[in-house]
Amino acid sequence: xxxxxxxxxxxxxxxxxxxxxxxxxxxxxxxxxxxxxxxxxxxxxxxxxxxxxxxxxxxxxxxxxxxxxxxxxxxxxxxxxxxxxxxxxxxxxxxxxxxxxxxxxxxxxxxxxxxxxxxxxxxxxxxxxxxxxxxxxxxxxxxxxxxxxxxxxxxxxxxxxxxxxxxxxxxxxxxxxxxxxxxxxxxxxxxxxxxxxxxxxxxxxxxxxxxxxxxxxxxxxxxxxxxxxxxxxxxxxxxxxxxxxxxxxxxxxxxxxxxxxxxxxxxxxxxxxxxxxxxxxxxxxxxxxxxxxxxxxxxxxxxxxxxxxxxxxxxxxxxxxxxxxxxxxxxxxxxxxxxxxxxxxxxxxx
Length: 350
Fold this sequence. Notes:
mainly beta, 3 helices
């Protein structure tokens, strides 16, 4: 697919020379046995809808047989083992003009935000899903919601960490739809995440520096660490399960891994083939990092020495890539009207 690498449109928020990025990147040995293909479901009914070209974290798995994605008619659940799909939140229940920009699913609920700062939280199981009230919407100002990720419970309440284009990271109570806390930054927040215990958070956005902050500290406190070395804006970040590593996906075509013990420079940098790294995620075992480009390529990096990697080639726009909670499966959503759409499953072999 060399021709796609030359023809695919590139976008830079900050003008830079990609060759400068590639000079810093590692070149791991490519293997094909980290995850192997098991099954795919093809067709328009499995097409994830992408409403913003920079926001691609739109596929989430709550188990190896429950994969959620945003379809033209609402939130769908795909079961690759039973080879079935169903609509769990219909678009008919949503306000007119709801254009999804952020999605996450966890603990029996789904959170979705749109281009106008509106969001909803809906249950995913049983009769509760069918009786969900469509008017139970929240709103975070008029700007686009760029990203959402489930957070640890606080006093029994389920929380969602929300990245807002107005330069704010919100912690939203999924039960009451109220904002429990807001923290402001000097640039648009494109992605945010936190460690498993909720004590440390990472924020990236329209700046070349990502920030690691103490979630327990006052809002005016300086960051605990600055993630430097990016040449452009970042749109994804993720902590490893042991909280030792944090990864960023940047528009300069690179995924970077930082060691929290010395976060002033990247421990490892990996470059893609066709464009920005739009989505990054660690497996729950901590062994692998998946990084998805906007089209055609999904990369799996072995974090044990960073010496091996696997490239998965898929023709078309990529809506997202996510591991199952047990690390056994990798799911990829392809959403492309020209080259075809579908959901793909790969299984861990090591």
